[in-house]
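I hope you will forgive my troubling you with a question about protein structure. I set the record out below, with my sincere thanks for your time.
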Amino acid sequence: GILVNWTSQHMCGLNGCEFAETGYSEAPVFPVSRLKEENISFDEMLLAESQSLLLIHDDNSSLVGLSDAYFENQFEIPLLCWVCLALSRLLSLLLQAALIGVRQGSTTMWSIAMAYPALSFLSLVALWIIRMRRVRSTRRKKVIQEAAQLRQLAYEQLMGDKLEHVVLHLRDGFAHDLHPTSKKDRDHIVLTVWPRVVADVRMDNRVLKSTRMIQGKPRDVWQWVATPTKRVGFRKQETTK
């Protein structure tokens, strides 16, 4: 009974059985001294003749465990343990297959690189260029989206009171409101996103652009001057629907 429990603990436990030893048979074996510590009486002669147990005399100690015949035919593994062992074996096989694939792929690529060094170098350069173009495209799309959102915030601020607003004050206010704790993100707004907003507003005739002397320095000023207009075409389409 205790050997079965130790075997189950070693196979199904997260850390196994700390005093189990493997490599002698399919099942783990355990020091005979552990049986003595558990106050279990036994006869080594009977252990040696048992068909269910395996007795091994090592140089300095004796080991006992379940025999291969008992382990294969009579030892019952709990269902959950069996599932875990199966998944562990499957994962191990998948990792081995992945490592073999990576190794073979690396070997093949190295062979090609050695056989065609110039072509390999040009291919690497082309891949690097493609990657950099994709990274730049992704960053550009992100900046365009951020600029559109920030421009809408500026329009809402201008339309809200229709007063003159210093452009730098708008910029710094939005940067601190959006990123109150990150100087890096505020710098991103100031240096990368806001110039696009300025370029868009410069082409928008609904906003009056002027210059005012503020504390002895010329500052660009924006003011919303457009009046609300009915979007006739849009309403006509809604009526038709």
About this structure: The chain is about 65% helix and 15% strand. Confidence is low (pLDDT under 50) at residues 234-241. The radius of gyration is 39 Å. The first helix runs from residue 2 to 12.
